[in-house]
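Appendix B. Extra example for self-study. Work through it before the problem class; the solution is given directly after the inputs so you can check yourself.
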Amino acid sequence: MKARVTVTLKSGILDPQGKAIEGALKSLGVDGVASVRQGKVFDIELAATDKAKAEAALKAAADKLLANTVIENYRVEVLS
Amino acid sequence: MKSAVLVFPGINRERDMARALKLASGNETSMVWHAETALPKGTDLVVVPGGFSYGDYLRCGAIAARAPVMDAVRDFAASGGLVLGVCNGFQILCESGLLPGVLMRNAGLKFVCRDVHMRVERSDTPFTRGYNAGQVIRVPVAHGEGNYEADEETLKRLEGDGRVLYRYCSPEGVVDEASNFNGAAHSIAGIVNERGNVLGMMPHPENHVEEIMGCTDGRGLFAGLVQQFEKAA
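Solution. Structure tokens for the complete assembly:
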């Protein structure tokens, strides 16, 4: 079973890397970029075949390690 | 004073730390591998040193914070034992939940490696008793993620309870924007937990303890810790 966990910074948390990327996009002449926030994507393969169990495992993974919930939000998706 | 220095893969300041501790206390320091589940018997002080544990993968300190030895450190801190985290050690303590907040990428996005000044905010703690309140000391920093951030509520509590022990400042002791080189909230260089027995700080006092290093301003921190245990004994 394939799954994806997306970790993003909470709104209001300063993101200097996102700001730098935003600046680089503007200097490259990419039009219409209002703002950039940087995050992380984890593609995870699970042995589980039960969707609910898989989601529970992914949630545990995100809470325990993948995200620092002081500053980050996460989203769990079971893809197939 | 019996101290234990934790060693994680990718840590590189553990020997500097052990040397500074030995210089101050006269005792050998135990080096404790991350896979251990217990601290050496009779440990007075646990130090989480600086470096790049696990290559700073995922987030600085994130993986080390979940190592087996950290459960023992949590128990040690819960029973009132003193814990000092420097640089990556500060990041590990934040990630492990022993300290509030988080260390974000430096505001200027650059790794900063130079001497900075910090002001000792109070002298009535085990981690600052070797200094006078208001004293300015010169210490080296070497980090890319030392920009301390926490939510407003946490910052208010830290300030209200006097838990900011060290703050970046000018050589004259003025806390201003120019001396806050990494953009830390309230120019925070070091904080303690609610109980006051766990300190995390970004600068490296262990690298300013001998004449040959060009400065000995870091000695006070270690001398103060040693005094703390002499007093207790």
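Self-check: Residues 2-78 of chain A form a domain with the Mth169; Chain: A , fold (CATH 3.30.1280.10). If your reasoning did not lead you there, revisit section 3.
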